[in-house]
Amino acid sequence: MPLSTWLKAGTSATALVLAMAGSATAATTPAGESSAVRAAAVSLRYDDSRAVGWEAAIAAGVASWNANVSNVKLVEAASGTAAEIVIVATTGWPQATLGPVRPGGQVRVELGSQAVDQGYNKTRIAAHELGHSLGLPDTKPGPCSQLMSGSSAGTACTNATPDATERSRVQSTYASGIATPAPADSRILIDAP
After folding, report:
1. Crossing angle, helix 122-133 and helix 55-68, to 10 degrees?
2. Are 103 and 136 in contact (CB under 8 A)?
3. Starting at the edge strand that comes first in sequence, how are the strands of the sheet with 95-97 ordered?
4. Which end of the chain, N or C, is less surrounded by CB atoms within 10 Å?
């Protein structure tokens, strides 16, 4: 067989293998989401070392956000490293700096025991305040199904999961995967009823 025939056959086989590999990759990527978008998720570090008594609620709130959005991931900051989200326990009402925070920026979340003393759910409080860090304002008054309705949903509400609109807004905010700090917004949202 002439060399040119071997080269054509080899080139065709290589093209076939590459095409099949591309389709295999595409098959494992969720519909509507490219692998490039998933790889570009923004990681935001949180420091809860000054939120004694809230560790389980924070972990559950972080898990809720991480399970429901893919363009941003909340990760615990290693000891001694800077964090974009600083979480502290206070005796007042829960409050947070309105984001969206970007890598290198910083916002503060205060998890206030006054709300817990009045019967509000700790995990819902933590997830709600983290939502402010991700750029979501309050939606008061609102139903329990809206995480950002906060205290207006009442003390019986334990929902710590963002609804479809809240998830979509965070996904959109972090869609570009930009790793540069955003301008600071120093508005503090206090979640008292």
Report:
1. 50
2. no
3. 72-76, 42-50, 85-90, 107-112, 95-97, 188-190
4. N
Q: Band of the pLDDT at 70, cuts 50, 70, 90?
A: very high
Where residue 104 falls (left for φ over 0; alpha for ψ -120 to 50; beta otherwise) is left
Count CB-CB contacts under 10 A for residue 134: 25
Dihedral angle sign, alpha carbons of residues 114, 159, 84, 105: negative
Question: Under a CB-based contact definition with an 8 Å cutoff, are residues 114 and 165 in contact?
Answer: no
Confidence at residue 191, expressed as pLDDT on a 0 to 100 scale: 64
d(CA 111, CA 40): 30
**Mean pLDDT along residues 89-98:** 96
At residue 51, does pLDDT exceed 90?
A: yes
How far, in Å, CA of 111 to CA of 52, rounded? 10
Half-sphere exposure (Cβ direction) of 129: Cα atoms closer than 13 Å = 33
Buried b (16+ CB within 10 A) or exposed e, 149-166: bbbbbeeebebbbbbeeb
Q: Three-state SS for 100?
A: coil
Give the residue-averaged pLDDT of 157-172.
97
